[in-house]
Amino acid sequence: MSLLPQLLFTGIGIGSIYAMVALGFVLLIRSANVVNFAQGEFSMLGAYAMVILLTGFGLNYFVSLGLAVVAMAIFGVVFASITYWPLRDRGQIPVIISTIGATILLSNLILATYGPSPEVLPGLFDGAGFLVGNVFMDSQYLTIIAVTAVLVGLQYLIFEKTMVGKKLQATSQDKEMASLLGIPVIAMIFGTFAYSAALGGLAGILVAPILFVSVGIGPLIALKAFAANIIGGFGSIPGAICGGLIIGIVETLGASYISVPYKDAFAFLMLLAVLLVRPQGLFGERIAEKA
Amino acid sequence: MTRTASSTGRTALYGILALAAVIAVALLAPTQGYYLNIMMQAATYAIAVAGVVIVLGYCGQLALCQAAFLGIGAYCVALGTVDYGLPFFVALALGVVVTSIGGIFLGLATLRLGGHYLAMVTIGFQMIVTMVLTNWISFTRGPDGVSGVERPVLGPLELGIGSHYLALCLAFLVGVTFYAASLKASRLGRAMQAVRDNELAASTCGIDVFRTKTIAFGISAALGGLGGGLFAGAFSYISPDQFTFNESIVLLTMALLGGVQSPVGALLGTVLLVLLPEWLRFLRQAYLAVYGAAVIAIMIFLPRGVWGLVADRFFKAAPVETGPVPPLPLLSRKGEASKEIVLDISGLAKHFGGLKALDGVDMAVRKGSVHALIGPNGSGKTTMVNVITGLYVATAGSVKLLGRDVTSFAPHERAKLGMCRTYQNIRVFRGLSVLENVTIGAERDGNDVAGAQATRERALAALDFVGLRDVAGLPVGDLPYGHQRYVEIARALAGSPEILLLDEPAAGLNLTEKGEMAALLKRLKGHGLTIVIIDHDMKLIEQVADHITVLNFGKRIADGEPRAVLAHPEVIAAYLGEPRNEAA
Amino acid sequence: MALSRRFALGLISAAALAGSLVPAAAEDTIKIGMAAPLTGVAAEVGHFQQAGAELGIERVNAEGGALGRKFELVIEDDQTTNPGIVLAFSRLINRGDLVAVLASLRSTQVNAISADAKRAGIPVFFGGTDPSLTQNGNPWFFRTRPNDSFSAKVIADYGVNTLGKKKWAIVHSTDAFGTAGAKALTASLKALGIEPVLVQGFNNSQADMTPIVLAVRQSGADIIASYTPLETDVAVLARQFKQFGINAPWVGSASVASTTALQLAGPALHGTFAVADYNSAANDEAKVYFDAFSKKVGRPPDYTSAWTYDSIRLIAEAVKKAGSTEPAKVREALLSLKDFKGAEGTYNFDQNGDGLRGYNIVRNDKGTIVFERHIAFDK
Questions:
Q1: Closest residue to C260, CB basis, from A117, A211, A260
Q2: Same structural domain for residues C264 and C340?
Q3: Total structural domains in chain A?
Q4: Closest Cα partner for C324 from C94, C61, C68, C121?
Q5: Structural domains counted in chain B
Q6: A261 and C244 in contact by Cβ < 8 A?
Q7: Is A159 inside a domain boundary?
Q8: Chain C positions in Cβ-Cβ contact with residue A13 (cut-off 8 Å)
Q9: From C42's CA, which of B211, B509, B579, C289 has a CA 20 to 30 Å away?
């Protein structure tokens, strides 16, 4: 009995989670040139917000989902005004360090409030899934794959086909020039933070039925999502998606055929290999600084 | 090195005093228990934190795996002494060697790329190290860790006694702190800081950016290994969970809190962060949240850490003692207004995707001449200078410097042959003083000065030449915009260039300043320096140029004597097509 | 640049300040130290440990203390880390007025203080279950939980002799606890003439267990044993076992029957077995403790706190018996105690300092943990 189809399904499911978080991550790089190490904490917060609304207040699933995503968008703006805005002119590294600080702050605030015991968050569907041949299709993985696909499509349309998308791209490429052209650069950047946080929160809500809701889910997802970005090509949207899927598949296959304890090493070994052979990543362009 | 004999003596005296104090304190310290443990933890961590100062504070590279190096160093000592019977100090040295090799290898793989790549890859490396320490049970003993690390006897010190071992750790710490402090004022340290402040300018000043970063990372890793090795001896028990990603963040925060650009500050930060958790126990869980908030607050309000505050308050930048210095030997290179070609460019092209920024340009710069490169906005002038100096790789064509084909050379290799430049958007090294900025120019490989004293005199002479000798000791950021331009020019002049490329030296200057700049250019011309100048100010160009090349849409449309070129119909058309814009 | 001197002086004054923060206690109490994870990943467990010890103090004081003196607890936070417990422990020992110290539930932390504990020269109680901890010739170590060689023996005995299963798959986390447990179980099975068909390790905190679950299915095992400390990992495993149609009986380490795992995994854990050193139905003392703890904390107690409660009572008993708080005499008294009834079971310390030699088997009956039986060994 071949394990391959099952492993591929699981790999794509896990990979979609990484891809979704990587997507929020890549947008911040594109619009504000911010490498946000707290991206995983967005997912953790989104999941906790959902627990509060759904279990705490007993609201309807979709109402809770909507409110949680909106709350995360607002949080994104707050996050940007504290960790990014005061440091925006000091280069990339101070912002990276301040987002690392935010990671420690947020996870420990939640730990102090909710304690280390994980919470349960139900999925959209009650059933666990179904069998297709030998392959067990987990309904939550199917949901994640579907949502990721829809979001990727939407994002592509927004970025490439609408005026807002064009303005966002202009902002990321040259802030001064964009503001001369009358693009509200500040609004664009804060808007991206809001969207990125909402997306991260949504990812958290979707993975919670699989991973449970605990402080640990942030780093668990985020590190792989970062690796996905580099493997796919830094700042590339298709790169983030493919990078996420590749990591999901490689680590699942690697765990099954090579070694379970070293599962988490595969993503990073692949990352090192990509950097040595093709540093711009699969979809990236060569990076040149303007002199 | 800019120290005079008396200050060297004073430093040595301070060193001996510090060392004596340290040993006295350590011998009086308790031989076991809480205070001893906390002092040993602070001392060994501080050594690793000095590594963070070098790689992040000096060189501006964010690595997030210092705990991995700490762990490798610790395991070398623990496994080396317990399982393989190596003498303690051999194992300690082994740890330092292994970590520096690891650091250099990681650096080679990632440091060519931007800052965030190193951050990510080092996180990955950190996790792999933790995984290997945990899972390779037959070698590392796995999660149980290694216990029973014995300490040797060293001369009068019986290191088995806690306070004696603490003396050893503190002696290493003093050594490392002095090393890090002296590194900062050394040529290598200045190169690191130049890389931190402006990679492009560093490379065109002749600094091998990649090599400098890799060395910084290697030294940092080695210090991590040293701290780790001593840590293993201090606690005699180590386990993988002591060297996780979280510990890397702790080490990073220690450096940031104290002041990441100062080894003394980092020491202060380490002591604070070892003690703070002890003092703030009453905060319980909220302590770590406070800690995270503190990291953000430090970045926003205390970019130079606690030590930055102290230093600003108590130590003012010392005025630079300037005795008489010999004049800038620009004349030594002067040939006849010769026919000799210094820079020979043929068929040079640079394409960005479909855009042909440069399309088959020829240009020859004769020795001792001022060669102007003009053209409307977007005509490819700055691109041309960037290709000539190696910041961009040419799509086609060749660049010959003094008869040598340098088309495939890196910027620092071209600088070594005597090609120096300035930038349209000023690129000085903001974290350094005026004198240090110019010293970096004087230190370029291939320059005709040798020795610290001569280099310093050369830098002062260059500052003298542009009239900024009085402000040599100030941070360069404190100077007005126009003066920063002169610092850039002095930096290039201190390198005794064979050819000097000036990219819009008068941009952003007011009328008076423009007049001064013109005077300076004339003096340079009078000394027979070979110059390529880009500018929009035709008055300036007419005053100084011997020869003009005109670009439009990436092509050369005219070339020759100023009068003839400026009368050329195509040139007039190109300029009339677009109004003259002086502040491009 | 006399900074290093300033640094050292700063350290001394700072340390002195830190020391002065410890509140001065009444002279005449018998003080017992405790290093517990009040912060960090195991903060919740730390507070249970603290509550258990406090209940122990309350009880012995209610019974009149010892030598006419009351008992008092002195707590230090170990931050759930190894360096943390080294500092916390040395801080406790530095006081010089403690009769005994309660250390950690985590084996690596006990390992971390092993050398210091040997030098300290007072009894150190701990709940780490790695068998090797008491085999380093440290005369001051006392373990008030059964070690994992016994949990392994009990799992093997129950699976082979009661459930009648021969094809074993062992899944374990690769931390100290999981690795030591899997090793002990493999040895116990070998003693019963059985070689496991699969021994599979994994890192703590896995998002997905598909490769592990598939490996179990491939192996054709008819019984699964697990050594894993994290409830989330137990829950993910349980769910995926069900999804892949694996219904072999599962006998796991304590986490399989923990309240959190039950809540996370729900029906996926129904019908599983676990070893538990503490169960309220196992004996009378366990019932007494159950009532007291539930009243104080508002939730049922488990293995994380029963050992601290027992440790305090054991110390009090030993001080009474020795008629002195002198460490050597207290140690002798502890070793000579016979059949002391505690919440965790009946204590008889051997020369290594191991007090208990048995475990309870419990079963998840549709979400309720029920006591199956107690299995104990002589050595």
A1: A117
A2: no
A3: 1
A4: C68
A5: 3
A6: no
A7: yes
A8: 208
A9: C289
The enclosing domain of B93 has a CATH number of 1.10.3470
**B154: β partners:** B157
Q: In what order do the strands lie in the sheet with B396-401?
A: B355-366, B341-352, B396-401, B404-405
Same domain, C212 and C138: no
Contact yes or no for C123/C30 (Cβ under 8 A): no
Query: Residues C188, C272: one domain?
Result: yes
**B120 contacts: CB under 8 Å, gap ≥ 6:** A226, A227, A230, A271
CA A238-A240-A244 angle, to 5 degrees, is 120
Residue B200: burial class (beta carbons within 10 Å; 0-12, 13-18, 19+):
middle
Q: What is the CATH number of the domain that holds C126?
A: 3.40.50.2300
The position carrying tokens 């070994």 is A269
C81 in reach of chain B (CB within 8 A): yes
Give the end-to-end CA distance of chain A in Å, rounded to a whole number.
59
Phi and psi based region of residue C244 (left: phi greater than 0; alpha: psi -120 to 50; beta: remaining): alpha
> What CATH number corresponds to the domain at position B560?
3.40.50.300
DSSP H stretches of helix in C159-222: 176-191, 210-219
Residue B29 covered by a domain: no
Smallest Cβ distance to A35: which of B116, B121, B256? B116
First to last CA, chain B: 40
Q: Is residue A86 part of a domain?
A: yes
Helix (H/G/I), strand (E/B), else coil: B86:
coil
Give the ipTM. 0.85
DSSP conformation class of A129: E
Looking at the fold, whether C125 and C161 belong to one and the same domain comes out as: no
d(CA A176, CA A181) in angstroms, rounded, equals 9
C375/C273 Cα distance (integer angstroms): 14
Residue A276 in any domain: the answer is: no
Same domain, B375 and B390: yes
Using CA coordinates, name the residue in chain C closest to A128.
Answer: C243
Q: Is residue B352 part of a domain?
A: yes
Collapse the DSSP code of B552 into the 3-class scheme (helix H, G, I; strand E, B; otherwise coil) and give the result.
Answer: strand
Whether B484 is covered by a domain: the verdict is yes
Q: Which residue range(s) make up the domain with A129? A: 15-218
Q: Are residues C113 and C192 in the same domain?
A: no
Residues B151 and B239 in one domain: yes
Provide the H-helix boundaries in B198-327: 199-204, 209-235, 245-258, 263-279, 286-301, 305-314
pLDDT tens-place values along chain B, 584 residues long: 344 444 555 666 777 777 777 777 767 776 666 778 888 889 999 999 999 999 999 999 989 999 999 999 999 999 999 999 999 999 999 999 999 999 999 888 888 776 677 887 888 889 889 989 988 888 888 877 888 788 888 877 778 778 888 889 998 999 999 999 999 989 999 999 999 999 999 999 999 999 999 999 999 999 999 999 999 998 888 888 889 888 898 899 889 888 888 888 888 888 888 877 667 666 666 777 887 888 888 888 888 888 888 877 776 666 666 677 777 776 445 555 567 888 999 999 998 877 888 888 999 998 888 999 988 887 888 899 999 999 998 999 999 998 889 999 999 999 999 899 999 888 999 889 999 999 999 998 888 888 888 898 899 999 988 888 888 888 898 888 889 999 999 999 998 898 999 998 888 888 888 888 889 998 888 888 899 999 888 888 888 889 999 988 888 888 888 888 888 888 888 776 654 444 44
B432 in the same domain as B411 = no
Contact across the interface for C175 and B143, Cβ inside 8 Å = yes
Q: DSSP 3-state helix, strand, coil percentages of chain A (rounded to 5)?
A: 75, 5, 20
Which range marks the domain in which residue B438 is found? 426-497
* One domain, residues B255 and B211: yes
Which residues in chain A have their CB less than 8 angstroms from residue B198's CB? none
Range of the domain at C74: 24-146+282-348
Closest CA–CA distance from residue C190 to any residue of chain B (Å): 21
Looking at the fold, whether B115 and B42 belong to one and the same domain comes out as yes
